[in-house]
Amino acid sequence: KVVWNNRADSKLNPEQRMLLEKAYKRFVRGGAQLDAAGKDRLRAMNSELASLSLKFGDNLLKEMNEFRLVIDKKEDLAGLPEQVVASAAAAAKKAGLAGKWVFTLHAPSFQPFVQYARNRELRRQLFTAYLTRGDHGNATDNKGIASRTAALRAERARLLGYETWADFELEEKMAKTPARAYDLLNRLWPPAKALAAREAAALQEAIKADGQDFELQPWDWAYYAEKVRKARYDLDDVALRPYFQLEKVRDGAFQVAHQLYGITFTELKDIPVYSPEAQVFEVKDADGSHLAIFYVDYHPRPGKRSGAWCTRFRGTWVKDGRSIRPVVANVCNFSRPSGDTPALLSLEEVQTLFHELGHGLNAIVSRVHYRSLGGTPSDFVELPSQIMENWAFEPEVMKNYARHWQTGEAIPATLIEKIKQSERFNQGFRTVELLAASLLDLEWHTLAATAAPDTATLERIALARMGLPPQIPPRYRSTYFQHIFSGGYSAGYYSYIWAEVLDADAFQAFKEKGIFDPATARSFRVNVLEKGNSEEPMTLYERFRGRAPSVEPLLEKRGLK
């Protein structure tokens, strides 16, 4: 307290000031000012919250692993790409069901099924299973866990002097307050809904053109969106996959990092791995100095949670004048190889690989002095990852890595042009589902009452209040919203769209001067990637961009203008 009250001491550099500020906030937010009874209650809540978080994640993993859609009639596979069918046959054989086909709720199995399977009833079954994860009233039901977690968080916030959990969480984020997070979401919500309504109308027309007369439902969206996309842009995901061999895409992303920052990735064979599927690379800077050890782990397996993420086994700091370098990992759940065919990625998986490498680069080039400043607020941490997605489909980048796995032929310019033309396609849907999940998150965490709410009631009221179109579920419903109940993003899921404002605006700087402009890349590395949480994020961003971020590039990028 004494040091905090004298923090105006001019001898402190910006990183030391930030360290002091964070230390003081930890002092306050950790309950150091509470009496003995308050501290006991806080410890009990922290322990229970940790247990609930673990249980939520375990329940979701069990639900994901236990469900399977078994198909024994070949005609029910109509519309599915050969590689998807082969993977389903391999999954069935592994499960002791040789001669049949097994589909699961994991993305490489679920997504292509709802996107291509002609059998509408089977799409409905699989989609419904996906939508009701953790909501079956059984031992793995997550409704009670979500409710109890929200109540404990509200109580903890009130005990520490905050009105709500969102106020507590956002104090150290760029947004600072729930009101500012809501402001961005509410600005985007009306144009996103309007665009999604136009998209829904186009899909309804596609249903009619298909000789059907049913109303568009959530399990129809991906299937008919693929039909409309193919008709509108003559773009077929199945025809694209052969150009996106996993290893080539990975090397292409590494090459982007090299062109931007001069760093190199060299595979190491003598480093221990936690799974035979994991690979290890040494990352060196442009001058040949060691930067990091980098693991990649790209395929799903039992015991591995779904999704994609970046983690650090060791962070960065300075000890005795020497920089301690990090150990970083990208973990994903991409399509597996099948038979003689290597792992071939979808456009979305390509984007995810670049995204997670962006997180990795943020950790790899970090230059903070103090270990506790190595992290970044959640609404700033997505900037390094989301900006990397922009390079994935730039023509000069794709020509390097997108090569047919059999012929070695570079992806034709006509396909690249079609990909660029289709970038705004389905953005109403994507924006609505993202914003809906963000608003649902804030609904949970702006509760002032500490009584446990009924999960189903809270969610139903929240979705009705926002006027969510019935054909578009939120990206995550409460019972499988792992980001906020088991993943460190509570009251922070808005971060993805907040950071997209930053990344669209930041990439505009690259487009203005050249997407590999050395000076722009150097400024982004020095002012954003290397700094961690050593200064206020907005200060760092404005230092890179020369001004505050503008929302206009995002509106343009998503077609919301």
Q: Give the tally of β-strands.
A: 9
pLDDT < 50 runs, ≥5 residues: none
Shape: globular
Distance between the termini: 49 Å
Helix content: 40-55%
Going across the biggest sheet, name each strand in turn: 3-4-5-9-6
Query: Multimeric state of these chains?
Result: single chain
What would you call the structural class? alpha+beta
Profile the largest sheet. 5 strands, mixed
The number of helical elements comes to 23
Rg, nearest Å: 24 Å
> What is the averaged pLDDT score?
95
Sheet-strand content, in percent, reads 5-15%
Structure in words:
- With 561 residues, this protein is an alpha+beta fold.
- Helices cover 55% and strands 7% of the residues.
- It contains 23 helices and nine strands.
- It has helices at 2-5, 14-29, 36-66, 82-94, 107-116, 120-131, 143-159, 165-170, 178-209, 218-233, 237-240, 246-261, 347-364, 378-392, 395-401, 413-421, 427-445, 455-466, 482-486, 495-513, 518-529, 537-545, 552-557, and strands spanning 69-71, 101-103, 264-268, 279-284, 290-297, 309-314, 317-319, 322-324, 327-331.
- The protein has a five-stranded mixed sheet, covered by helices on one side.
- Helix 21 packs antiparallel against helix 22.
- The longest helix has 32 residues, at 178-209.
- The protein is globular.
- It starts with a helix and ends with a helix.
- The model has no long low-confidence stretch (mean pLDDT 95).
Topology:
Layout: H1 2-5, H2 14-29, H3 36-66, E1 69-71, H4 82-94, E2 101-103, H5 107-116, H6 120-131, H7 143-159, H8 165-170, H9 178-209, H10 218-233, H11 237-240, H12 246-261, E3 264-268, E4 279-284, E5 290-297, E6 309-314, E7 317-319, E8 322-324, E9 327-331, H13 347-364, H14 378-392, H15 395-401, H16 413-421, H17 427-445, H18 455-466, H19 482-486, H20 495-513, H21 518-529, H22 537-545, H23 552-557
Parallel strand pairs: 5-9
Antiparallel strand pairs: 1-2, 3-4, 4-5, 6-9, 7-8
